[in-house]
UniProtKB/TrEMBL annotation:
Belongs to the MscS (TC 1.A.23) family. It is found in: Cell membrane. It comes from Segatella hominis. Residues 692-751 form the Mechanosensitive ion channel MscS C-terminal domain. Gene3D superfamilies: 1.10.287.1260, 2.30.30.60, 3.30.70.100. This is Mechanosensitive ion channel. Residues 1-21 form the signal peptide. The lineage of its organism: Bacteria, Pseudomonadati, Bacteroidota, Bacteroidia, Bacteroidales. The keyword Ribonucleoprotein does not apply.
Length: 798
C-alpha cells in the first residue's frame, strides 16, 4: 500500500513539473543545453503549425465568405420588412441578432491568439537580446556551441511568430469588416425590436368596435394583405412561398393521421387485447377508464417525435421554423395531458380534459398564426372574436365540469378564465398582440405548474408508501431536497421560463432576457433586477433546507449518543445554526443586490449604536440562555422556582418556558432565572426527599410503630429503595407523639406517590390497632331550675 501511495505522489510531481521552462541547473553549461532542447522542441511544434496553416487559412476564408453571404441575406430580409407584418419582422430581427451573437463568440478566440502571440514575441525578444549580449570568453566550447544554437533557434522562432502574427492580423481585419456590418444590422434589429415592444405594450391599434363600425373597409384591407402576403411569386419558388405552407399542413395532417393510427393500433387494440388476456391485471380498471385520454396524450407525443425527426433531416428554412414551433406546442399539450393522466382519478379524467380544451385550442391558433406569419390586419380582424368565443367556452366548461375535477385543477381553470377575460378585453380595446402574448404565456406557465404539481403529487405518494414521515433524516434527506428545494426553485424559475418562451413566439427571447437582467433599481449602493430577486428567493429555499436538514441530522446524532440531554443540545445547536445559516444567506443576498460598503457600514454602525442600549437586556438574556443550554438546565428537567414546580419545556436565547404541575405555562427570562434560587430536581438521579408526618397516641410503643411502618413502606414500588426509609421522632405535641417519615420518591410522580405513602401509613396503623389521635373537646350539659335561672339573670343584671 505504501509503495502505491509513493508511486502516485511521484506521478503527481512529474505531472506538475513545468515542461516548457528552463529551471536552475547545476551550472551554466547544463542550463544552455536544456534551453537548446526546449527551443528545438518548440521550433518543431511551430513548423507543424505552419504546415497546418494553409488548411486553416482555407477554412477561415470559407467561414468568412459564408458569414458575409448570410449577413447580406439577413440584411436584405430585415431592411425589406414593412410595417403590418410583425411576425415576419420579428423573425428577421431574430436572425440578425442571432448571427451577430454567434459571430462575436467565433471572433473571440482569434483575438486571444493574437494576445498570446504578442506575449511570445516579447519573450523571445528579451531572450535573443540576452543571448546576443552574453560574454563567451569564460565559457567552455560546448557552452559556446549551445549558446550559438540557442540564439539561432530563438531568432527563427521569433520570425515564425511574426509571420503567424501577421496572418492572424489579416484574419482580424477581415473579421472587423464583417463585425461592423453585422453590428449595424444588429443595432437596426434592436431598434425594430423596440418598436415592436412599443406596439405590443404601449401603442395599440384601433379597438374592435371601430373595426366593426367600418367592417367593409377593414375586410377589404385584410383581404388585400392576405392576397399580397400569400400570392405565389412568379419565376422562382421561395422557401417561404404559400405553396410551402400548404405542403407543411399536408405533412401535419399526414403524420397526424399516422400518429393516430399507431396509437389506436398499439393502445386500443394491442394493449386492450393483452389486458383482456390477463396481462397487467393491476391497471385494468384504470386503463379502460382512461383509454381514450391515453390515446390522445400518446398521439400528441408521437406527433412531436415525428416532427422532431423531420426537423433534424430537413434543410428548408420554413419547415425548420414551423417544426420547432409545432414541437414546442406538442410538448406543452403533451405535458398537460400526461399530468392529468397521472394525477386525476378514473371518474374525473374526461372532465379534466374538457376544462383545458379551450386553452389548448387557442394556443394552437396562436402557433398557427406564428407559423404562417399572418399579417397584422388579419390578426386584428379575426383574433378578438375567437378569443371571445373561447372565453365563453371556458366559462361553460367550468359551470359543467368544475365540480368533477380536483381542487387544484378547479383553481387553475378559474385562473385560465381570468386570463381569457383579460386577453379578450385587451384585444377588443386594440392591444391584440398583447392579448396573444398573455395567452401564450399562461399556456406555458400552466404547463410548468402542472408539471410541478404532478411531480409533487407523486412525491407525496412515494413518501406515504415508504413511510418517510417516521424514518430518520439519513433515509429521507434527498427526498426532502427534491421536495423543499428543487420544486420551489422550479416554481420560481417557471415564471421566467414561461415569459421567455412566450416572447420566443415573437422571436424576442433575447430582448426578454435583457428585461430580466435590467436593474430596475440601480443606485450606487443598491441594485435589483427580476433575475436577482428570483436568485435570492431560490437561495432562501436552499438555505431553509440546510437549516432544517442539518438540525435533524444533529438531533439524530444527539438522540443516539445521549438521549437524556439531547433536547437541550438540539435547542442550543438549532439557535446557533439559525444565526449562522441565515447570516450567510443575508450576506449573499446583499452581495447579489450590490449593496455598497458605505451603506453596510452606515447600517451596522446605526444598528450597533441604537440597539446597543435597547438590546442590553436581550444580550444579557442571550448570555444566560447559552449558559443554561450548556448544561445547567436541560429540556425535560423538573425545577422548583419560587414555589412554582414544573417541567422545562423549552430554552431559547431569551427565555425559558416552564409547564407547571397545575397545567399553566410560565415564561422566565433567562437573567431572572439565574438570579432566582431555583432547584433542579432531576439534575442528580431523578428522586427527591419527601418528608411526611404522622402522630400516634401517648403510650404507644414508638419502636414497634417505626418497625412496622418501615416494613410496610419498603414494599411499595414508588419509593427509591437504594436510599431506604427512615423514621425519626420529631416532637411531643399536645395530643400525640409526632413521627417524621423520610422517604425518596420520583420527582415526576411526587404528588401521586405522597398519596400512596399516606394511604399505606393509615392502613398499616389501623391493621395494628394503633390509634392516630386527633384534637378532642368534651361538652357537659347541666339542667337548671327556674329559680336558679332567675337568680342568674338578676346577678347578670346587677
Amino acid at each position: 500500500m505504501k509503495k502505491k501511495i509513493l508511486f502516485i505522489l511521484l506521478l503527481l510531481v512529474v505531472c506538475l513539473l513545468p515542461t516548457h521552462a528552463v529551471l536552475k541547473e547545476a551550472n551554466l553549461d547544463t542550463t544552455l543545453f536544456m534551453l537548446r532542447t526546449e527551443l528545438t522542441q518548440y521550433h518543431i511544434d511551430l513548423e507543424k503549425q505552419n504546415r497546418m496553416a494553409k488548411a486553416q487559412q482555407q477554412a477561415v476564408i470559407k467561414e468568412l465568405i459564408h458569414i458575409m453571404m448570410q449577413a447580406d441575406q439577413n440584411s436584405i430580409m430585415l431592411y425589406s420588412q414593412r410595417n403590418g407584418y410583425i411576425f415576419d419582422l420579428t423573425y428577421a430581427c431574430n436572425e440578425a441578432t442571432e448571427q451577430f451573437r454567434k459571430f462575436k463568440s467565433k471572433a473571440a478566440p482569434f483575438r486571444n491568439m493574437i494576445n498570446q502571440n504578442n506575449i511570445e514575441v516579447a519573450r523571445f525578444d528579451s531572450l535573443i537580446n540576452y543571448l546576443y549580449g552574453m560574454n563567451t570568453v569564460f565559457m567552455s566550447k560546448e557552452a559556446q556551441v549551445n549558446r550559438n544554437v540557442d540564439l539561432t533557434l530563438a531568432v527563427n522562432i521569433r520570425r515564425q511568430l511574426i509571420e503567424k502574427q501577421q496572418q492572424l492580423n489579416e484574419y482580424i481585419k477581415a473579421y472587423d469588416v464583417t463585425d461592423k456590418k453585422l453590428k449595424a444590422l444588429n443595432d437596426y434589429a434592436n431598434i425594430r425590436y423596440s418598436e415592436i415592444q412599443t406596439s405590443i405594450f404601449n401603442n395599440g391599434g384601433a379597438n374592435y368596435f371601430k373595426i366593426l363600425g367600418n367592417l367593409g373597409n377593414n375586410y377589404r384591407e385584410a383581404k388585400s394583405s392576405v392576397t399580397e402576403k400569400y400570392k405565389p411569386a412568379p419565376g422562382m419558388m421561395s422557401q417561404w412561398d404559400v405553396r410551402i405552407i400548404f405542403i407543411l399542413f399536408g405533412i401535419i395532417i399526414f403524420y397526424g393521421l399516422i400518429s393516430v393510427f399507431l396509437n389506436l393500433l398499439t393502445i386500443r387494440c394491442l394493449m386492450t387485447f393483452l389486458i383482456k388476456k390477463g396481462w397487467f391485471e393491476s391497471i385494468k380498471e384504470s386503463f379502460m377508464a382512461k383509454r381514450p385520454c391515453i390515446i390522445m396524450a400518446m398521439t400528441v407525443v408521437t406527433f412531436a417525435a415525428i416532427l422532431g425527426i423531420i426537423r433534424m433531416i430537413t434543410k428548408q428554412n420554413f419547415i425548420i421554423m414551423a417544426s420547432d414551433l409545432l414541437v414546442e406546442f406538442s410538448w406543452l399539450v403533451g405535458v398537460i395531458l400526461i399530468s392529468l393522466l397521472l394525477r386525476v382519478g378514473n371518474d374525473q379524467i374526461k372532465s379534466a380534459f374538457r376544462i383545458y380544451s379551450p386553452l389548448m385550442l387557442i394556443g394552437f391558433f396562436v402557433i398557427t398564426f406564428r407559423i404562417i406569419l399572418i399579417p397584422n390586419d388579419l390578426v386584428n380582424f379575426i383574433f378578438p372574436p375567437i378569443l371571445l368565443l373561447c372565453t365563453l367556452w371556458q366559462w361553460n366548461v367550468i359551470q359543467r365540469h368544475n365540480k368533477k375535477v380536483p381542487r387544484l385543477d378547479m383553481i387553475y381553470t378559474w385562473i385560465s378564465l381570468a386570463v381569457f377575460t383579460v386577453s379578450t378585453f385587451c384585444s377588443w380595446i386594440g392591444f391584440t398582440l398583447l392579448a396573444v402574448q398573455i395567452i401564450i404565456w399562461w399556456m406555458m406557465q400552466l404547463t410548468c405548474i402542472l408539471s410541478i404539481t404532478c411531480i409533487k403529487d407523486w412525491l407525496g405518494v412515494y413518501a406515504e408508501r415508504k413511510n418517510l414521515k417516521h424514518k430518520p433524516i439519513t433515509d429521507k434527506w434527498f427526498f426532502r431536497f427534491i421536495n423543499k428545494v428543487a420544486l420551489p426553485v422550479a416554481g420560481v424559475f417557471s415564471f421566467i421560463i414561461a415569459i421567455y418562451w412566450a416572447a420566443a413566439v415573437f422571436n424576442m427571447s433575447d430582448t426578454t432576457w435583457m428585461i430580466f437582467n435590467k436593474h430596475y433599481i440601480d443606485s450606487e449602493n443598491f441594485s435589483a433586477s427580476l433575475y436577482s430577486l428570483s436568485l435570492v428567493a431560490c437561495l432562501y429555499f436552499l438555505f431553509n433546507y440546510l437549516n432544517i436538514t442539518t438540525t435533524d441530522i444533529m438531533r439524530h446524532h444527539f438522540e443516539k449518543s445521549d438521549p437524556t440531554s439531547a433536547a437541550s443540545k438540539i435547542m442550543m445547536f438549532k439557535n446557533v445554526l439559525q444565526v449562522v445559516i441565515w447570516g450567510i444567506w443575508l450576506m449573499i443576498a446583499l452581495t447579489i443586490f450590490h449593496v455598497g460598503k458605505s451603506w453596510l457600514l452606515a447600517i451596522f454602525a446605526g444598528l450597533s449604536t441604537g440597539l446597543g442600549f435597547a438590546s442590553k437586556d436581550i444580550l444579557e438574556n442571550i448570555y444566560y440562555g447559552v449558559s443554561l443550554m450548556m448544561g445547567r438546565v436541560k429540556v425535560g428537567d423538573y425545577i422548583i422556582c419560587e414555589g412554582t414546580r414544573g417541567r422545562v419545556s423549552s430554552i431559547s436565547y431569551t427565555s425559558t418556558m416552564l409547564e407547571a404541575t397545575d397545567g399553566s405555562v410560565i415564561a422566565f427570562q433567562n437573567s431572572q432565572l439565574f438570579a432566582k434560587n431555583y432547584k433542579n430536581m432531576t439534575r442528580n438521579h431523578g428522586y427527591e426527599l419527601d418528608i411526611l408526618e404522622v402522630g400516634v397516641a401517648y403510650g404507644t410503643n414508638v419502636k414497634e410503630v417505626k418497625k412496622i411502618l418501615i416494613e410496610a413502606l419498603n414494599k411499595l414500588d414508588c419509593i427509591y429503595h437504594e436510599k431506604g426509609v427512615r423514621i425519626v421522632l420529631k416532637s411531643f405535641d399536645d395530643n400525640c407523639i409526632t413521627l417524621k417519615i423520610l422517604v425518596w420518591v420520583n420527582v415526576l410522580t411526587q404528588y401521586a406517590d405522597d398519596g400512596i405513602i399516606m394511604e399505606c401509613i393509615y392502613d398499616t396503623l389501623n391493621e395494628h390497632n394503633i390509634e392516630i389521635p386527633f384534637p378532642q373537646r368534651e361538652i357537659t350539659i347541666k339542667n337548671v331550675t327556674t329559680e336558679e335561672l332567675g337568680v342568674k339573670k338578676q346577678e347578670l343584671g346587677d
